[in-house]
Design a protein that fits this description.
alpha/beta; globular
Length: about 325
């Protein structure tokens, strides 16, 4: 989520100044109070709608061609993104009627599949492309889907891992239909990390063996509370409550409906939690409560020293891949 607090703050300041001017200019003080109250309520509603549109509404879809080129990609992402986008195109219909698309890169006769989930507004899956390529180099098949409201998938809004968990369950079924011997592990970064945690609490086939999540948030509500207070500098209440009501009415889900911290309480899958210890976007303080809430007998929290949000693989690749390989070696079979 992009932190851009200037627009809501300016709107609020302008409206409040106008309200005060009206209050002092109108001779009947009670009329001024009524007008001021109406303007404040209007400002709150306007800010809430603005925030919902900024945060949840999708960006423009990707071009219709097979390869979109490397414009806008970081140098360290380009090769891996283009490699991933050269994979076989797969499609599924979501439970609510959206056509979702993803890429499958087969690796010989392997029956192991890395199901990778990207983060918020990573339309090219650039935050997981290097990891996907590494999994392939380790001998695994790789599948990466465009989340609803992202990339080549349909959807006018982003589900913030609430809706996406059922989409991932659909992709799991698709992979098993193709390969009845499939052994699948779930990997996700940021919103993708929240997605795989949410998915872990669903009823899944035995083909799904483990979960690796990187810097996922504990709940949509918690993340938005943090973003509003720190990023936008405006009061959480009643703004966020109204945002939730708008999301529920317009997009069919609330910020409390499904949360990673509740879903991991239901899972039995081994989960590896990874988080950068100076992450200030999805704060590091969310990692320990997630770990402690997890009911799995096999769980581990790895803190990457000096890593900001979603860059642990670049900050300390040695520790990162040592822990990931160890987890795969222990629980994949």
């Amino acid at each position: 989520m992009k932190r851009n607090g200037k627009l809501p703050q300016r709107i609020l300041i302008v409206v409040l100044l106008a309200a005060m001017a009206v209050f002092f200019c109108v001779m009947r003080w009670w009329i001024g109070l009524v007008i001021e109250a109406v303007l404040i309520i209007a400002a709150i509603v306007l800010i809430a709608f603005t925030m919902v549109n900024l945060i949840l509404k999708r960006d423009k879809p990707m071009p219709s061609g097979d390869i979109a080129g490397d414009e806008g990609l970081e140098e360290r992402q380009k090769d891996a993104v283009l490699w991933l986008e050269s994979g076989e195109l797969m499609e599924q219909m979501s439970e609510d009627g959206l056509k979702l698309r993803g890429r499958l890169v087969k690796n010989g006769d392997s029956h192991v599949y890395a199901l990778c989930c990207h983060g918020y507004k990573n339309h090219r899956m650039q935050d997981i492309a290097n990891q996907a390529k590494r999994f392939y180099d380790m001998g695994y098949n790789v599948f990466a889907g465009h989340a609803r409201g992202h990339g080549r998938s349909e959807g006018e809004y982003i589900g913030m891992a609430v809706k996406e968990r059922r989409d991932i369950a659909g992709w799991i079924d698709k992979l098993i239909q193709r390969d009845h011997e499939a052994k699948i592990f779930l990997y996700g970064v940021s919103m993708g990390g929240a997605t795989v945690m949410n998915t872990s609490g669903e009823e899944l086939p035995d083909n799904v063996r483990l979960v690796i999540e990187d810097c996922g948030y504990s709940s949509v509500w918690d993340e938005f509370v943090y973003q509003l207070g720190d990023g936008y500098g405006i009061p959480v209440h009643p703004i966020l409550n109204l945002c939730q009501a708008i999301s529920k009415s317009r997009y069919g889900y609330g910020f409390h409906d499904v949360s990673p911290i509740e879903q991991v309480k239901k899972t039995k899958l081994p989960i590896l939690f990874i988080h950068g210890d100076i992450d200030t976007f999805v704060p590091y303080d969310m990692a320990k409560p997630l770990y402690e809430a997890c009911s799995s007998e096999h769980k581990k929290l790895v803190s990457i020293k000096g890593a900001e949000h979603a860059v642990s693989i670049y900050t300390d690749p040695g520790t990162y891949w040592r822990e990931v390989k160890s987890w795969l070696g222990a629980y994949l079979e």
